[in-house]
Write a structure and sequence with these properties.
4 helices; single chain; about 75% helix; about 90 residues; about 0% strand
């Protein structure tokens, strides 16, 4: 299930660099984190849903690559983002 528009706009407003920003690495990571949280809860209930598990693994990999990019290019933003989203630093 995709995020509803109200929740998505709230996340974008919180993590956007500027008023019209919808695609920066910070926003993408925050949106992916929300979807990962939702799918994790879904898979705790529906343990045999293997297609959702595969989707979750793809989302985690995409978020990991974006975090690596952000860490390499803007470490201050990276450190504040992982503190806000409570993601482990690798």
């Amino acid at each position: 299930m995709a995020l509803d528009m109200a929740k998505k706009k709230e996340i974008i407003a919180k993590f956007a660099r500027s008023e019209n920003d919808t695609g920066s690495a910070e926003v993408q990571i925050a949106l992916l984190s929300e979807r990962i949280t939702y799918l994790t809860q879904h898979l705790k209930i529906n343990t045999k849903d293997h297609s959702s598990r595969l989707g979750l693994l793809k989302l985690v990999a995409r978020r990991r690559h974006l975090l690596k990019y952000l860490k390499r290019n803007n470490y201050d933003s990276y450190s504040s983002l992982i503190a806000t989203l409570k993601i482990k630093d690798r």
